[in-house]
Structure formats: structure tokens, C-alpha cells
């Protein structure tokens, strides 16, 4: 229980960090793909001294499977950025946001396809949390061909985020957060660099304020946000972690209100309540599952004829 308490505290810090992402990107005068590249590249620069010095042995003996899955997670994370950012120019921001936040639904579906049987509370909590995001952002599916393509990109970006979360949870079973994120972010930066070169996105020539905002984005959204999410997913599981990420949407709206002076939507507070209610259901399902597993383990090790609760 103390470990879970620490995980939930770190999860709250992570959500606060990723909630700063949208306001910072909105205030940064640089191409979106370039921003995505630099936040990963700068994170790799910060992690390099620790990863190559204190975790050098772990990286060398990481294991083929863990290393390949870390690289794949980096590719999928880059795919998430590469799909979602263009969708913002093709469809409405509200629709793109609502569709990309289907991540926990994709997470639950992928777990089900892999043979896991998520409890009914997980399905209900996930649906309720996504409904909260829809309440805040709205969703207006257009029949325009370009808008439909943007909708498809945003939906695919949500699925990619689910894949990134699930791959990370698998690697974190055996690898430390530092080793995993170092390999993952390095791969993401390399893939996004290629995307920037192909698309012609300017990688430099920014003023000092822009670089400062990109550095701030790296610290709060990448190092505190994504890295802490990868830290807690081992203990909390992918369902709880991916559902909690939905709090980024109302969190970003409230931060924008405080920092940028933007009036938060009237639906921000009720949407926050609905998302929290959905997250509570997922957490409750996880606790029931853990309690049942612990009870079964106790019964398995109890001597014959001895009551499990004795």
C-alpha cells in the first residue's frame, strides 16, 4: 500500500507535467514536429550522463527482448506524435482531442485481444472517463474528406499511445525507468528527426524565448510527465495509467486559464468530475483484482486443513 501511495503521488505529478504540454506548445513559435523532436532529443541529453554512467551495465545487459521492445515503443511514440500533430490542421482541435484520448479504450481492447479479461468496472470506468473528455472538448464528425482523414489520424494516434503504454509496461517488468526511457526517447528522437527532414520542418533559427519554452516543455512534459508515467505503469498497470492520462485535457484547460489568461470552458469542472469518477472505477477494479489474486495466493500456500484467514 505505501508503494501504491507513492505511485499515485508520482502519477499526479506526471499528469500535471503533461497538462503543461498543450499550453506550452501553443505558446511556442516553432513547427509542431520540430517541437516533438527537440523535447525528446533534449530529454536524451539530460538522461545521457546518468544512463551511460550509472546504468551502463544494465544497458549493456538489457536483453534482446527488452531492448527491441524499448526501440519499438520509441517508434510507436514517434508514430503517435506524427499522426496526431498533422490531424490538428485537418480537423477541428476539439474533435482531434476527443479522438486521440480514446487511448484507454484501445488499451483495454488490446489487453482483451491478448487474452486478458478486464473486469466490467474497467470497461465502465474507461467509457465514463472518455465521456468526460467528450463533454469538455465536444466532437463534431464532419463529412468533409480532409476532416475525415484528420479524424482517422487522431484515432490512430490514440491507438499508438495505447501501444506505447503497453510496451512500456512490459519492458518495465525487468528494466529500470532510466534505461527504458533512454532507449525509447533516443529512438523517438531519431524517427522524428527523419520526419522533420522529410517534411521540411525548421529545426533551428528560433529566438531565445522559443528555446526556453522548448526546454521548459522538455522538463515538465517529457522528463516529469512521460518519464514518471513510465515509472508508475509498473505498479499501477496500463489500464489505470492510461485512464489517468485523460486528466490532461481538463488540466491543460485550467492551466491555460491561469497562465495564458484563457477563460476555462464552462464544462471543464463537470468534465473533470466525470473523468475522476471513471478513473475511480478503474482503480477500484484494479484493487479488487489485486485482492482476489492475493487471496488466491494465500490459499495456495496455506497448509492443508488450515483456513486461509487463520
Automatic annotation (TrEMBL):
> Domain EamA: where?
6-137, 150-283
Do you know which SUPFAM superfamilies this protein is assigned to? Multidrug resistance efflux transporter EmrE
Could you name the domain of life of the organism this protein comes from?
Bacteria
TM regions (residue ranges): 66-85, 91-111, 120-139, 151-167, 179-204, 266-285
Q: Which PANTHER family does the record associate with it?
A: ACYL-MALONYL CONDENSING ENZYME-RELATED, EAMA DOMAIN-CONTAINING PROTEIN
Similarity-based family: Belongs to the EamA transporter family.
Indicate what this protein is called per its UniProt record. DMT family transporter
